[in-house]
Design brief:
Layout (H helix, E strand, L loop, with lengths): L15 E7 L2 E7 L11 H8 L9 E5 L5 H9 L4 E6 L2 H13 L5 E4 L10 E6 L7 H10 L4 E12 L4 H8 L4 E8 L2 E7 L2 H10 L1
Parallel strand pairs: 3-4, 3-6, 4-5, 6-7
Antiparallel strand pairs: 1-2, 7-9, 8-9
């Protein structure tokens, strides 16, 4: 069975258009087979976006595993001053994200990357609905490798369901980050990981 974090060029394409309202802003999103949440904006992503401290955010933001683009496109639409990078390994997702950026009249930097392989900058924030189906080992790699791409004091905001190990993830990440629970909604946890001086000391010890 093909997964949305893989490339399957033989998979039948059937693009569908969805009208979505987030924080009072209207969006049009194209989705397709082989891309996460082809039926439109999923509840986890909506929970994440509706609980971000938007007035606090600034500067450069990385949308990791952008899929068809709702996170990065929403953030750019909300504040045109944000500098948004959007990455994914799935070529069909990237193609949709490009189309959706045009449909929603935003300018964002979208490119292919396996994990952080093609990411060369450091960011003030990383925002993601991570691909839980890859398993806990890869999820932890996503969260821990993010340290190399965050500025000092930078933060990761992500969403995960309690049944997918939200509490254990929070506990384990306390070794490397300052961890905060931002919101809970129907089992979904919105979590913030802050990259502080302690985290830098840990990185030096591992070098």
């Amino acid at each position: 069975m093909s997964q949305y974090f893989e490339n399957n060029e033989s998979l039948h394409s059937l693009e569908k258009q969805h009208m979505v309202k987030i924080h009072g802003l209207d969006f049009t999103f194209l989705t397709d087979h082989g891309v996460f949440s082809k039926k439109g904006l999923d509840f986890g992503t909506r929970t994440l976006l509706e609980n971000l401290p938007l007035e606090k955010l600034h500067g450069t933001i990385l949308d990791f595993g952008c899929g068809y683009g709702p996170i990065g496109i929403f953030l750019k639409k909300y504040n045109q001053n944000f500098l948004i990078h959007m990455i994914d390994i799935n070529k069909r997702s990237l193609n949709l994200a490009l189309k959706n950026a045009i449909l929603n009249d935003v300018v964002v930097n979208i490119y292919e990357s396996d994990m952080y392989q093609n990411v060369t900058e450091t960011f003030d924030y990383i925002v993601t609905n991570p691909p839980i189906r890859v398993g806990k080992k890869i999820l932890y790699e996503i969260l821990l490798q993010a340290r190399k791409h965050l500025k000092i004091g930078g933060e990761i905001y992500f969403v995960i369901h309690k049944d997918q190990g939200a509490k254990s993830v929070m506990r384990d990440m306390e070794k490397e980050y300052q961890v905060s629970l931002i919101a809970k909604n129907k089992g979904f946890y919105v979590i913030c990981l802050k990259f502080v001086e302690k985290s830098i000391d840990n990185l030096r010890e591992q070098a």
